[in-house]
Amino acid sequence: MVSDAGRPVAGPVLSVRTVGGYVLVTVAGVVGPGDIKQLRADLAVQAGGGARLVVDLSGVEFGDLTLGVGMLAGVRNRVIEAGGSLLLVVDETLSLALRRIGVYEAIGAHASLAEIDDVLA
After folding, report:
1. How much is the pLDDT for 1?
2. pLDDT tens across 10-34, in order?
3. What is the pLDDT of residues 75-88, one digit of tens each?
């Protein structure tokens, strides 16, 4: 990932906005093993208070998919425990990993924001 000044950006970059009653968190960049804990904490903050959360991960590259999937499962559990809901937008690589372990539907994964719009309609 490159900043506006043309320098590489270390770790993932998050942007947060409210769209139609949901908190949309867009994550971009490379998420390495050292970034997982902070990303989990950042998403947990957004999930507080029973938020309806949509996390767009389509611009993310996980350095370790196993850690990424584990982190997403943990975030999902926190969101549910707080009375909220979670939907994910995932790229093809993460989609395949989630399908391979049989949690694609259970974790709330979707291929695009447009697909999520259809679910929310």
Report:
1. 39
2. 678 999 998 888 899 999 999 999 9
3. 999 899 989 999 99
pLDDT at 118: 73
Cα separation, 46 vs 119, in Å, equals 21
Distances (CA, A) of 71 to 36, 40, 52, 75, 96: 7, 6, 18, 6, 16
How many H-runs (helices) and E-runs (strands) does the chain carry? Answer: 4, 5
- Judge whether 31 and 57 are in contact, CB under 8 Å: no
Q: Which CATH class is domain 13-120?
A: alpha beta
User: What is the rounded CA–CA span in Å between residue 38 and residue 11?
Assistant: 10
Reported pTM: 0.86
Distance, CA of 35 to chain centre: 13
- The domain locations on the chain are 13-120
Answer yes or no: are the C-beta atoms of 90 and 111 closer than 8 Å.
Answer: yes
